[in-house]
UniProtKB/TrEMBL annotation:
Cross-referenced SMART domains: CheW
One GO biological process term: signal transduction
Record GO cellular component, one term: cytosol
Organism: Roseburia amylophila
Protein name, UniProt field: Chemotaxis protein CheW
Secretion signal span: none
Origin: domain of life: Bacteria
Domain CheW-like, first and last residues per copy: 12-153
Pfam families: CheW
């Protein structure tokens, strides 16, 4: 009976592992609509500095955000590995986020994820929901809602 209870509580989720700088981050795959190569981003005047502009994705206008600048890291450096991840969150319109590289998809159980504690004033920490352990690698799991919410309040 105890063994059966344990498997119910260990909910497994898939995450897309991306690189931003030298760190790995996980994005809950249920939010990911599409992954596209870097393309021309049209600037939009008078928006927050972390918004790079908009792209036209098959007729849909999608705002694009720099995750690096959003987390108060250094400016983006685009390479052949750079990608825009298109997120769809419930009823909201699509949003693109720029990442340095998309690595892989991993499946993590709740027993492989530690919650983050610490100073939530640190921009980077406030966007992290937990730390996933995949073998001997650590993956910071992004809290997509906290990244998006700030956008709407600003």
């Amino acid at each position: 009976m105890a063994e059966q209870l344990e498997t119910v509580e260990n909910i497994r989720k898939q995450y897309i592992v991306v690189k931003i700088g030298n760190e790995q981050y996980g994005i809950d795959i249920s939010y990911v609509d599409n992954i596209v190569r870097m393309q021309k981003i049209t600037r939009v005047p008078r928006v927050q500095n972390f918004f790079k502009g908009i792209i036209n994705l098959r007729g849909e206008i999608v705002p694009v955000m720099s995750l690096r600048i959003r987390m108060e890291l250094e400016e983006d450096v685009f390479t052949n590995a750079s990608r825009i991840i298109i997120l769809k969150i419930e009823q909201q319109s699509a949003l693109g986020i720029i990442v340095d590289e998309v690595k892989e998809v991993v499946t993590l159980g709740t027993n492989e994820i530690d919650k983050v504690s610490g100073d939530m004033k640190n921009a980077k920490v406030s966007f992290i929901d937990g730390i996933g352990k995949n073998g001997d690698e650590l993956i910071s799991l992004l809290d997509i809602h906290s990244i998006i919410e700030e956008k709407e309040n600003a």
